[in-house]
């Protein structure tokens, strides 16, 4: 009886030692947990862990986007530098060269046009539109002791062939004036060799000397009419007739002159101190310049056969 009783008490004590209410630890277990936590804290305190070691992986991963950005900037800069150098070393010099070639071509073309224009203008300058030969036949004093000059006035063509009958004139003195009326047209008509306005026109108004009045001079072409030398070449147009008929009106009306393409219209009276046994030429260039050539020796008259 005693043995059975002790056995029952022992099993009851064992159940009380190992079974407990859920959610609560026995006193012995709670003490065990506290001791284990204390040992863990002691171990941590004995071996402190550097916080930087825990953050190191983060630090190694975080700069990655910055590096990519920097490399992107570097690559973009290299590309931009390559484009700039290509433009400066290849494209720009090529454009400059092309521009220079184009400018040179334009300059050459312009110079060629100027050359052709100058050649045409020089050709025009050499062209004589009206020519008269003046031969000094004799020069001597009269009974009153005054010097008298006798000339032969003849209009000729470019070959020297007379265009009309010669006129012998005796004038007092030695200086002889050749009074003319001149009409000059705009330059572009001359350059284009216009059939009517491509050359200047001249009328031999009169011939006189320095010792006589101009009004007393010898009339050559009738004023107000187309000069006979032009009429003999071709039938004068109404335009030409109007020019000579309204000569002084055009000379005093700029608007009217411009409407007809007239650049200048005026009188011109070159003169020369004539020497005996000399021959001179009074010429009108296409540009409207009236000139007297230097005198040359007069050929002696050919004896009659």
Principal-axes shape call: rod-shaped
Poorly predicted runs of 5 or more residues = 1-23, 57-61
Q: Please count the beta strands (DSSP E, at least 2 residues each).
A: 11
End-to-end CA span = 208 Å
- Counting structural domains, the number is 2
**Number of helix segments?**
9
The fraction of residues in strands falls at: 15-25%
Largest sheet: 6 strands, antiparallel
- Helical fraction equals 40-55%
N-to-C series of helices and strands: HHHHEEEEHEEHHHHEEEEE
Mean of residue pLDDT values:
81
Radius of gyration: 62 Å
Give a summary of the structure in a few sentences.
The protein is α+β, with helices and mostly antiparallel strands and 305 residues long. Helices cover 46% and strands 25% of the residues.
């Amino acid at each position: 009886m005693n043995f059975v009783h002790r056995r029952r008490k022992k099993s009851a004590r064992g159940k009380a030692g190992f079974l407990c209410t859920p959610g609560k630890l026995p006193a012995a277990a709670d003490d065990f947990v506290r001791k284990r936590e204390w040992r863990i804290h002691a171990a941590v305190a004995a071996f402190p862990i550097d916080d930087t070691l825990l953050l190191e992986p983060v630090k190694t991963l975080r700069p990655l986007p910055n590096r990519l950005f920097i490399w992107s900037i570097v690559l973009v800069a290299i590309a931009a530098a390559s484009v700039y150098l290509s433009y400066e070393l290849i494209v720009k010099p090529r454009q400059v060269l092309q521009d220079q070639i184009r400018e040179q071509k334009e300059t050459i073309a312009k110079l060629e046009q100027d050359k052709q224009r100058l050649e045409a203008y020089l050709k025009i300058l050499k062209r004589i539109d009206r020519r008269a030969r003046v031969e000094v036949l004799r020069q001597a004093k009269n009974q009153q002791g005054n010097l008298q000059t006798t000339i032969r006035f003849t209009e000729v063509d470019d070959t020297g062939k007379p265009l009309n009958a010669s006129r012998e004139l005796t004038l007092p003195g030695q200086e002889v004036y050749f009074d003319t009326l001149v009409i000059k047209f705009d330059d572009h008509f001359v350059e284009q060799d216009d059939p009517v306005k491509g050359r200047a026109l001249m009328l031999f108004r009169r011939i006189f000397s320095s010792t006589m009045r101009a009004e007393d001079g010898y009339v050559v072409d009738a004023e107000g009419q187309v000069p006979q030398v032009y009429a003999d070449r071709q039938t004068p147009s109404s335009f030409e007739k109007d020019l000579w008929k309204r000569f002084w009106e055009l000379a005093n009306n700029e608007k009217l002159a411009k409407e007809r393409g007239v650049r200048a219209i005026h009188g011109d009276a070159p003169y020369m101190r004539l020497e005996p046994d000399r021959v001179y030429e009074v010429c009108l260039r296409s540009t409207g310049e009236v000139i007297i050539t230097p005198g040359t020796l007069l050929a002696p008259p050919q004896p009659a056969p």
